[in-house]
Amino acid sequence: MSSCFVGGFALENVVHSTAARTCKAQMISQFCPKSARTFGHRSSYTQRSVRRRSATTMSSQNGNYDYDLFVIGAGSGGVRASRIAATHGAKVAVAEESKYGGTCVNVGCVPKKLFVYGSHYPEYIEEAKAFGWDMSVQNLDWPRLVENKNKEISRLNGIYGNILGRAGVEIIDGTATLKDEHTVAVGDKTYSAETILVATGGWPKVPDFPGREHVITSNEVFFLPDVPKRFLIVGGGYIAVEFANVFHGYGSEVTQLYRGDLFLRGFDGDVRKSLRDQMIARGIDVKFNTDVEKIEKEEDGTLKVTLRDGGILEVDQVMYATGRAPKSRGIGLEDVGVELGASKC
């Protein structure tokens, strides 16, 4: 029986609201210390002390492997598994090819929440008039927002690294590939482990069509140099809906395209209809029952989008939010007898 386990794809979506609130407080504190003192959220928890057994003894009992557990991927699932196993006395290593924290911390729920918070301020300023405040929206400094977001994410990356280090987990930077059911290669080095956990998470999917090289996904949207004046978002899930509203708040002329009758399939029907009506009332152009046929890039950088119903859109940026797939390709799973499905990145 193979000791290689594929796990953590669902764990990639673990979200802690307290952490997101703290991130907002950190962003505010950079420019408005007085507000941060009242906004900041402090939480405390008691961690049970665990009597740790000797990691060296455990490894020797398990066949003289380098580690009891080797984790590929330091995202939400990988960090949690590594830390808990090490706390119980296992000798653990985790390999990560990018930044610690995975999708949620780096290009998911945390930066998305920061963008959401910022996109609401024009509405707050408009509402303030009814309460006697005369304010106006000045120029948006988008690069400042992105820079401060990057600083906050870097802070969280450091926290994740410290959490692993304090638990006694060895962190190995680099891309890990499976050589056999007990061996992992990272660069020119190999490591053995009794158990290998694959926690590589997911990756955005973009369907094949002419011009797909011109689109971005949720991986790239957090690093745009400017706010697109005309922004097309393709997809009908909550990621597409969220970003349509976020960039509308930042001033983009947003069009959301969905191939079905109504977005957010699986959610409450009344909520879906109400949200559709509110988005249209706010000025978001929502198009249903159509899809992209092809995308052509003009000489001035404009993206000409031809729709399957014959329509033509001219936009400055196209984002696809059409689902995610397990990030399981190219790490050697097939070589150790793990059968992969068709949906993989």
From TrEMBL:
One of its GO terms (biological process) is cellular response to oxidative stress. InterPro entries: FAD/NAD-bd_sf, FAD/NAD-binding_dom, GSHR/TRXR-like, Pyr_OxRdtase_I_AS. Keywords: Disulfide bond, FAD, Flavoprotein, NADP, Oxidoreductase, Redox-active center. Its cofactor is FAD. GO terms for cellular component: cytosol; mitochondrion. It comes from the Eukaryota. Residues 67-340 form the FAD/NAD(P)-binding domain. GO terms for molecular function: flavin adenine dinucleotide binding; glutathione-disulfide reductase (NADPH) activity. Belongs to the class-I pyridine nucleotide-disulfide oxidoreductase family. Homodimer. This is FAD/NAD(P)-binding domain-containing protein.
